[in-house]
Amino acid sequence: MTDHRPSVGRADRLIARDIACIRGGRLLFAGLGFTLAPGGVMLLTGPNGIGKSSLLGILAGLAPPAAGSVELPTDTGRIAYLGHGDGLKPLATVAETLAFWAAVNGPGDPQARRQAIEEAMEAFALGPLAALPCRYLSAGQRRRVALGRVMAGAARLWLMDEPATALDGAGARAFDQALAGHIAAGGMAVVATHAPNALDGAEILEIARFAGTAPRFADPDTWGPSVGQDP
User: Fold this and answer.
1) CATH code for the domain in which residue 178 is found
2) 0.90 exceeded by the pTM?
3) Quick one: CA dihedral 190, 196, 198, 201, positive or negative?
């Protein structure tokens, strides 16, 4: 059996080679590939159902591709994945949530970890919400906490599915600034989005270019496992 889990490569970049994805017996895309270097942003675009979420799941190692491979850079560290769900525990406060994820994924040095939490709290205006359990947050507030959780971590590779969902104008601007800071520091990001992003130098991957039927997947016996929740 072929192992399609992401492997750790020798380069400093994310490499997707000839990726194919089958979901529910339907080929979403095939032959998809790209390379993302440090300081790079890849925007995944296309209509609902084209496979944006499924591709993010493959890159994160949450599901295997039907074909192809993913190579992670040697110095990526942990991957920060933000899906449609916010992944917040309802009884944990905002401060507890950021502290927990910073301890799991953040800098090893305690002082650097505290600084990362403070910067995330400030970036997404979470100070007034610090003592509030997440169960009482609005959808937009929950999304800001989820983004703050990503920012407080030490991952150099961010994989994000519609990160600006439910954000108001101020929240969306805060995300754009956080993403720009992450990239300026040598981070990388792959972002599925319907909204335009003004970040300079962002690359755009139109998944529709790789959609269709490929002969090697014509036989139903070759269909692979379903991928993701909502492409």
Assistant:
1) 3.40.50.300
2) no
3) positive
Domain assignment of residue 209, yes or no: no
17, 31, 49, 51, 102 from 26: Cα distances, Å: 20, 15, 11, 11, 39
Cross-strand partners of 157: 79, 188
Domain count, the chain: 1
Distance (Å, whole) CA 123 – CA 146? 12
Residue 100 included in any domain: yes
Task: State which residues form the domain around 53.
Answer: 38-62+75-204
Contact between 78 and 72 under an 8 Å Cβ cutoff? The reply is: no
Domain membership flag for residue 116: yes
**Domain-embedded: residue 172:** yes
Q: pLDDT (tens digit, 0 to 9) for every residue of the chain, 231 residues total? A: 344 456 555 468 999 999 999 999 999 999 999 999 999 999 999 999 999 999 999 999 999 999 999 998 776 557 899 999 888 999 999 999 999 999 988 888 999 999 999 999 999 999 999 999 999 999 999 999 999 999 998 899 999 999 999 999 999 999 999 999 999 999 999 999 987 666 778 999 999 999 965 545 443 334 443 333 344
